[in-house]
Amino acid sequence: MINIEQIQKFLPHRFPFLLVDRVKEVHPGKSIVALKNVSCNEPFFQGHFPGKMIMPGVLIVEAIAQAGGILLFNSIPNPQRKFVVLTKIDNTKFRRQVVPGDQLKLEAEILKLKSKYCYLKGRAIVEGEVAVEGEMVASILDLEEMNELT
User: How is 56-116 classified by DSSP, letter by letter?
Assistant: First the structure.
Protein backbone atom coordinates (compact mmCIF):
# COMPACT_ATOMS: atom_id res chain seq x y z
CA MET A 1 0.00 0.00 0.00
CA ILE A 2 1.18 3.49 -0.85
CA ASN A 3 -0.64 6.25 1.05
CA ILE A 4 -1.32 9.87 0.08
CA GLU A 5 1.84 11.22 1.73
CA GLN A 6 3.97 8.84 -0.33
CA ILE A 7 1.97 9.57 -3.49
CA GLN A 8 2.84 13.25 -3.09
CA LYS A 9 6.51 12.29 -3.24
CA PHE A 10 5.93 10.67 -6.65
CA LEU A 11 3.60 13.21 -8.28
CA PRO A 12 3.93 16.99 -8.54
CA HIS A 13 0.12 17.38 -8.49
CA ARG A 14 -1.65 18.91 -5.50
CA PHE A 15 -5.22 19.75 -4.54
CA PRO A 16 -7.45 20.11 -6.45
CA PHE A 17 -5.62 18.23 -9.20
CA LEU A 18 -4.18 15.26 -7.31
CA LEU A 19 -6.53 12.46 -8.39
CA VAL A 20 -5.03 9.36 -6.76
CA ASP A 21 -5.86 8.69 -3.10
CA ARG A 22 -4.11 5.37 -2.53
CA VAL A 23 -2.10 2.74 -4.35
CA LYS A 24 -3.15 -0.83 -3.58
CA GLU A 25 -0.41 -2.59 -5.53
CA VAL A 26 2.47 -1.73 -7.80
CA HIS A 27 4.54 -4.14 -9.86
CA PRO A 28 7.52 -2.09 -11.14
CA GLY A 29 7.91 -2.28 -14.89
CA LYS A 30 4.50 -3.95 -15.22
CA SER A 31 1.33 -2.63 -13.58
CA ILE A 32 -0.38 -0.64 -10.85
CA VAL A 33 -3.76 -0.63 -9.11
CA ALA A 34 -4.76 2.62 -7.40
CA LEU A 35 -7.91 4.21 -5.97
CA LYS A 36 -9.70 7.54 -6.33
CA ASN A 37 -12.65 8.18 -4.04
CA VAL A 38 -15.15 10.50 -5.70
CA SER A 39 -16.78 12.89 -3.24
CA CYS A 40 -19.60 15.38 -3.77
CA ASN A 41 -17.12 17.97 -2.45
CA GLU A 42 -14.93 17.78 -5.58
CA PRO A 43 -14.56 21.34 -6.93
CA PHE A 44 -15.38 20.35 -10.53
CA PHE A 45 -18.91 19.31 -9.54
CA GLN A 46 -19.86 22.99 -9.12
CA GLY A 47 -19.96 23.38 -12.88
CA HIS A 48 -20.19 19.80 -14.20
CA PHE A 49 -23.15 19.80 -14.03
CA PRO A 50 -25.35 21.82 -11.67
CA GLY A 51 -28.19 19.51 -10.66
CA LYS A 52 -26.56 16.41 -12.21
CA MET A 53 -23.04 15.82 -10.87
CA ILE A 54 -20.91 13.81 -13.32
CA MET A 55 -17.13 13.53 -13.05
CA PRO A 56 -15.58 14.93 -16.25
CA GLY A 57 -14.18 12.16 -18.44
CA VAL A 58 -10.97 14.08 -19.00
CA LEU A 59 -10.32 14.00 -15.24
CA ILE A 60 -10.87 10.25 -15.14
CA VAL A 61 -8.28 9.92 -17.91
CA GLU A 62 -5.98 12.19 -15.88
CA ALA A 63 -6.46 9.96 -12.81
CA ILE A 64 -5.42 6.93 -14.87
CA ALA A 65 -2.41 8.89 -16.16
CA GLN A 66 -1.42 9.87 -12.60
CA ALA A 67 -1.55 6.22 -11.55
CA GLY A 68 0.64 5.49 -14.57
CA GLY A 69 3.04 8.22 -13.42
CA ILE A 70 3.39 6.52 -10.05
CA LEU A 71 4.05 3.24 -11.86
CA LEU A 72 6.75 4.92 -13.96
CA PHE A 73 8.33 6.50 -10.88
CA ASN A 74 8.70 2.96 -9.53
CA SER A 75 9.94 1.56 -12.86
CA ILE A 76 12.71 3.87 -14.11
CA PRO A 77 16.22 4.52 -12.82
CA ASN A 78 16.80 7.81 -10.95
CA PRO A 79 13.12 8.83 -10.96
CA GLN A 80 13.81 11.83 -8.71
CA ARG A 81 15.75 13.32 -11.66
CA LYS A 82 12.88 12.84 -14.12
CA PHE A 83 9.62 14.59 -14.93
CA VAL A 84 6.82 12.66 -16.64
CA VAL A 85 4.25 14.36 -18.88
CA LEU A 86 1.27 12.91 -20.69
CA THR A 87 1.81 13.44 -24.43
CA LYS A 88 -0.78 11.30 -26.19
CA ILE A 89 -4.15 9.65 -25.58
CA ASP A 90 -5.44 6.97 -27.99
CA ASN A 91 -8.41 4.64 -28.35
CA THR A 92 -10.15 6.03 -25.30
CA LYS A 93 -13.72 5.01 -24.61
CA PHE A 94 -16.09 6.39 -21.98
CA ARG A 95 -18.46 3.61 -20.96
CA ARG A 96 -20.08 4.69 -17.70
CA GLN A 97 -20.79 7.90 -15.80
CA VAL A 98 -18.90 8.48 -12.56
CA VAL A 99 -20.81 10.24 -9.80
CA PRO A 100 -20.28 11.20 -6.15
CA GLY A 101 -19.93 8.15 -3.93
CA ASP A 102 -18.19 6.09 -6.61
CA GLN A 103 -14.72 4.69 -6.05
CA LEU A 104 -12.52 4.52 -9.13
CA LYS A 105 -10.22 1.54 -9.31
CA LEU A 106 -7.42 2.80 -11.54
CA GLU A 107 -5.43 0.18 -13.41
CA ALA A 108 -2.46 0.90 -15.67
CA GLU A 109 0.03 -1.40 -17.31
CA ILE A 110 3.19 -0.68 -19.24
CA LEU A 111 3.05 -1.82 -22.84
CA LYS A 112 6.47 -0.49 -23.84
CA LEU A 113 9.09 1.41 -21.81
CA LYS A 114 12.00 3.26 -23.38
CA SER A 115 14.39 5.81 -21.88
CA LYS A 116 12.40 8.82 -23.16
CA TYR A 117 8.83 7.53 -23.42
CA CYS A 118 6.38 4.93 -22.19
CA TYR A 119 3.28 3.39 -23.75
CA LEU A 120 0.58 2.61 -21.19
CA LYS A 121 -2.81 0.95 -21.24
CA GLY A 122 -5.24 1.89 -18.51
CA ARG A 123 -8.76 1.80 -17.27
CA ALA A 124 -10.98 3.09 -14.50
CA ILE A 125 -13.45 0.66 -13.00
CA VAL A 126 -16.45 1.35 -10.75
CA GLU A 127 -18.09 -1.61 -8.98
CA GLY A 128 -16.65 -4.06 -11.50
CA GLU A 129 -17.81 -2.04 -14.51
CA VAL A 130 -15.36 -0.25 -16.83
CA ALA A 131 -16.01 3.50 -16.79
CA VAL A 132 -13.09 4.58 -19.01
CA GLU A 133 -10.40 2.70 -20.87
CA GLY A 134 -7.68 3.73 -23.26
CA GLU A 135 -4.03 3.94 -24.19
CA MET A 136 -1.60 6.77 -23.54
CA VAL A 137 1.97 7.81 -24.09
CA ALA A 138 4.07 9.58 -21.49
CA SER A 139 7.32 11.41 -22.19
CA ILE A 140 10.06 11.01 -19.63
CA LEU A 141 12.00 14.27 -19.37
CA ASP A 142 15.26 14.91 -17.59
CA LEU A 143 14.80 17.58 -14.90
CA GLU A 144 18.23 19.08 -15.54
CA GLU A 145 17.41 19.55 -19.24
CA MET A 146 14.06 21.14 -18.32
CA ASN A 147 15.71 23.56 -15.90
CA GLU A 148 18.13 24.66 -18.62
CA LEU A 149 15.19 25.56 -20.89
CA THR A 150 13.50 27.80 -18.33
Answer: -HHHHHHHHHHHHHHHHHTTSSSGGGEEEEEEEEEEEEE-S---TT-EEEEEEEEEEE-SS
- Under DSSP, the state recorded for 43 is G
Q: Where are the domains of the chain?
A: 4-149
Render pLDDT for 125-145 as a digit per residue (tens, 0 to 9): 999 999 999 999 999 999 887
Q: CB–CB of 138/85 below 8 Å? A: yes
Counting as low any pLDDT under 70, the low residues of the chain are 148-150
Contact predicate 26/76, CB 8 Å: no
What are the residue numbers of the active site? 48
Question: Contact at 8 Å (CB) between 68 and 108?
Answer: yes
Q: What CATH code would you report for 4-149?
A: 3.10.129.10
Cross-strand partners of 112: 119
